[in-house]
Model the fold of this input.
Amino acid sequence: MRKRSNLTLYILGAMVLGMLAGYIVFVFCTPETKTGFSQNIKLLSAIFLRLVQMVIAPLVFSTLVVGIAKLGNMKTVGRVGGKALLWFISASLASLLLGMLLVNLFQPGAAIELSNADAAGAKDLMGKTQQFGLQNFVEHVFSVSVIQSMAENQILQIVVFSVMFGVATAALGEKGKIIIKGLDAVAHVILTIVNYVMLAAPLGVFGAIAGVMATQGPKIFIFYAHYFLYFIIGIILLWLLLLIAGFIILNKRLPRLLKHIIQPLIIAFSTTSSEAVFPKLTSELEDFGCDEKIVSFVLPLGYSFNLDGSMMYMTFASMAIAQAYGIHLDYGAQLTMLLVLMLTSKGIAGVPRASLVVVTATCAMFKIPPEGVALILPIDHFCDMFRTATNVLGNALATSAVSKWEKALD
Done:
């Protein structure tokens, strides 16, 4: 526990130092120096993220196969999967509805200044909207090559293959136990590697924060004060909603769960990467008392189907862009947009800035100028910090809830 507390303090300290270092560069250096500093210091974050991404595919595969094989049969897999999907769908709908409610109440799009649009960034995102649609959704779910899926860290494709592999392994009976034992040992080796990688977390956090602050500076909060403020209110309300649901299910265990996931939350917040904390979150949930079979099955599914912070942000951002352009959508159109976002968001979790890719494509469907995403790009990194941490909280609560429902929580 002391080692965990020390690392948490180092990470928090790295965030503060990163903000100070970035702000000094922003105030005293030329634009060329700011850009160079940002690119170079972000290498620290890139190294940390690559170290984590290196172990994600083998960890998901080994833990998921072992978890499914140990569950024993398809009836148990279906029962656990059904309970997980019940949480995922309920949480996603609640997040989307909350975003729609707040954006209609606060009208944040009216406060966005058109002159601050990041046109270059919007053009880059519009180039990625080809990943939107039924055919591309199916292609994202079902892999041509599991080796390619692992190389690209396509978690949803790895999950599909791992489920099939796990079910087949369980069907082998005694012969399958050899594979289970081997993959169980592999999972423990990878989790040990994760402990080594986490020692580099403060450096990764420092690099990510300093790089953004050096180029953007604190002025970004002034330009988008209303938009950012209302989004933070939404995040706070969503956290309250999730924590209330968690308390109803977990009761007095909830504070202990939050204590276990504080490190993953801070790292996700500062690096804006859910992937960066997947291995650590896995081990923390097991330490908390969740059954390892449940964790290895539910958590990877959650990374594709249970992104609560991103879901809320997608309705919030889409409607804000419409408001900025003076486009009125009645409640029927808004509910249709909500359902579209509910379905299409499930297939692109592995895409960088996935939320904005979906927002861009959805805007085009509803005759909202898709280039309007440029309006929110300058503030998006800071919004991404909060929605990524929310995604981590949601998945931790979902896994713990399913473990409790299965009476598999110590």
